[in-house]
Design goal:
This protein is α+β, with helices and mostly antiparallel strands and 437 residues long. Helices cover 60% and strands 10% of the residues. Helix 5 packs antiparallel against helix 6 and helix 7 (243-273) packs across helix 10.
Length: 437
């Protein structure tokens, strides 16, 4: 039994997703062949190919695809289903070979498609198995036609007497055997190498994430102790401390706060990516929360000679949400707007009801975001690379995206270079916490 770990986290070497994709591809190919058979029925008759039998084979192939997809939904064990599916497709191709001219038909090329599918579903041994069954099936058809047990269906309006062409039938079989076995070897080798490489990459990513989380945890404890020491220093000597030293202490506290916030953001991102993050559902009064966040951001905006303007829809309803997450998302978006807006500019925060959701907009008049970066800025460590823009950590927007999605919302950006940016997100209006599934 070929039991290998799927590096993509989808189970065994032949995963349900791999089989589903194979069945869908088989269904598309079968539909195309069926449509061609119906559209060219007269030409098939002229070539002496039985269109009814061909259409019946096509329908049977489509039935296998349909039943296979249903079996996946019914949680049938995937490996036996893979074998049944591939062997069934191989048998159908073998029957189609006989019905479309035996050694004179190009249909045996379809064996190669099934062999490639087997290589990604079962590995190189599975590819050799399906290749062997294909060659055995084709050899049986040629032998039965050679012995006259099966009547060969002539096509191309040519006469061909298989009982008189034994050596030619052997050559014909070898002509298929060589590319089929070569395909099994190459596709199987490439598939196993690809799976093995992805497994190593996944393991490396797991180790890197574990090391990062360990370092973050180890950094937070001494940093918290350092922040406590700075606070005690301020309490004990703040009033008698010279202005220059007090200013240095304030800078140290602000830097420590930013570093602690960065560490907490990285920890939250790690929990969200691992699926271990659970929002704290609570009733949130939206208008006061937005006003508080804007007031906190206005301190930084004032230093940049900027103004924050609030446009809140009257009588904004309350909603069940994670208030701390919502506060941090708005804070990050406002901090970015302050960072990238020119001095003297206005940053607008709009909140309104939109159907059964709340919409938040943070609008700035900064340099805007190039089109190539608008889909990437929500990825971790992704930043717009421009010489006239200040650099950040590349974590703030990634956190915003995951946090908004954690409470059932979505976030996006609209921007034009030189015209500023509008970051918007929607969250559902809830009258009660969502039920946990």
């Amino acid at each position: 039994m070929l039991k290998r770990t799927d590096p993509l986290g989808q189970g065994e070497f032949g995963s349900r997703q791999d089989l589903r994709n194979t069945l869908l591809a088989g269904g598309i190919l079968t539909s195309g062949l069926g449509a061609m058979s119906i559209a060219s029925a007269q030409q098939l008759i002229a070539l002496q190919v039985p269109p009814r039998a061909t259409l019946l084979i096509t329908l049977f192939s489509f039935l296998i695809t349909f039943v296979g997809l249903l079996a996946l939904r019914w949680s049938v064990p995937v490996r036996p289903l893979i074998y049944v599916t591939l062997i069934s497709y191989t048998a159908i191709i073998t029957a189609l070979v006989h019905l479309t001219g035996g050694p004179m038909t190009p249909v045996p090329a379809l064996y190669l498609v099934v062999v490639v599918a087997a290589s990604f579903l079962l590995g190189i041994q599975g590819a050799y198995l399906i290749a062997g069954l294909s060659l055995i099936g084709y050899a049986v058809i040629l032998y039965l036609e050679y012995r006259g047990i099966l009547t060969m269906v002539p096509i191309w309006e040519l006469t061909f007497a298989p009982e008189e062409r034994g050596p030619l039938l052997v050559v014909n079989w070898l002509t298929l055997a060589l590319p089929t076995l070569t395909t099994a070897f190459l596709a199987g080798t490439l598939a196993e190498r690809w799976k093995r490489t992805n497994r190593h990459l996944r393991e490396s990513e797991r180790l890197r994430a574990g090391l990062t989380n360990m370092l973050i945890h180890d950094l937070r404890n001494p940093l918290s102790a350092l922040m406590g020491a700075l606070e005690l220093l301020e309490m004990s000597g703040g009033e008698t401390m010279p202005d220059e030293q007090a200013e240095l202490l304030r800078y140290a506290q602000e830097s420590g706060e930013r570093l602690l916030q960065l560490i907490n953001t990285m920890l939250d991102l790690a929990r969200m990516e691992a699926g271990r993050f659970e929002p704290t559902w609570e009733p949130v009064e939206v208008a006061p929360l937005v006003e508080e966040v804007a007031e906190e951001a206005s301190l930084s905006a004032t230093l940049e000679e900027q103004h924050i303007e609030l446009r809140l829809e009257p009588s904004l309803p309350s909603t069940y949400c994670d208030g701390q997450l919502l506060r941090r998302v708005l804070g990050n978006l406002l901090a970015n707007a302050v960072k990238y807006s020119p001095p003297g500019g206005t940053i607008r925060v709009q909140v309104m009801r939109q159907g059964d959701q709340l919409r938040f907009d943070v609008i700035d008049h900064g340099p805007g975001i190039p089109a190539a970066y608008r889909e990437l800025i929500f990825d971790k460590f992704s930043q717009v690379r421009r010489s006239d823009m200040r650099r950040g950590t590349g974590l703030g927007l990634a956190f915003c995206k995951m946090a908004v999605e954690a409470v059932g919302g979505r976030i996006w950006v609209e921007s034009e270079e030189g015209q500023g940016s509008t970051f918007s997100f929607l969250i559902p209006l809830r009258s009660a916490p969502p039920t946990q599934s």
